[in-house]
UniProtKB/TrEMBL annotation:
Record's protein name: Rubrerythrin
CDD domains in UniProt: Mn_catalase_like (cd07908)
Domain Rubrerythrin diiron-binding, chain residue ranges per copy: 35-160
One Pfam family from the record: Rubrerythrin
Length: 170
């Protein structure tokens, strides 16, 4: 998968040697928690549709970022399966399922606020991945999470460029 919204480096191959429900639970947070790839895909899709008439260039950028986020979602989902869990749109707390909610999407309507929110959300995602890396002691999983972080950092640069182009004088 090659595009300018993804860092031009390969993703490490998923190579999980044994099931680990604890690691799966951590990855589920990044997969379908409040700050997650599923939330990002949903939010970028909503925003892309919202802005397609008034800001077609921004709408197209949000679509392309969401496609990369879908790739992240797929990678995380495959890791969850390899770790022995189900990649449903939920997180687990004390063996209870907390389902993903559309309340996790920021439905801001003002274009400037949308881009600011997206930058903030990318920063939150990076922080969450970094926290996951601290508690997961598996080189392969952490290499994959670090690779995803590179894309999230690129998204911040792209979104900052959009913000500067359209809204820095507002």
């Amino acid at each position: 998968m090659k595009n300018s919204f993804m860092v031009n480096l390969p993703y490490p191959k998923i190579n999980i040697s044994e099931k680990n429900p604890y690691y799966a639970k951590i990855i589920l947070q990044n997969y379908a928690g409040m700050v997650s790839e599923f939330s990002a895909v949903s939010q970028y899709t909503y925003q892309k549709i919202k802005l397609f008439k008034s800001y077609p260039e921004i709408s197209e950028v949000l679509l392309k970022i969401s496609i990369v986020e879908m790739h992240h979602l797929e990678v995380l989902g495959k890791m969850i399966i390899e770790l022995g869990d189900d990649p449903g749109f939920w997180i687990k707390k004390k063996d209870k399922y907390n389902y993903w909610s559309p309340k996790f999407v920021d439905y801001t309507n003002e274009p400037k606020a949308i881009i600011k929110s997206d930058i903030t959300d990318e920063l939150k995602a990076i922080k969450q991945y970094e926290n996951s890396i601290k508690v997961i002691h598996d080189e392969n999983i952490n290499a994959i999470l670090k690779r995803i972080i590179l894309d999230e950092e690129l998204h911040i640069k792209i979104l900052t460029g959009i913000y500067d182009k359209y809204f820095s004088k507002c």
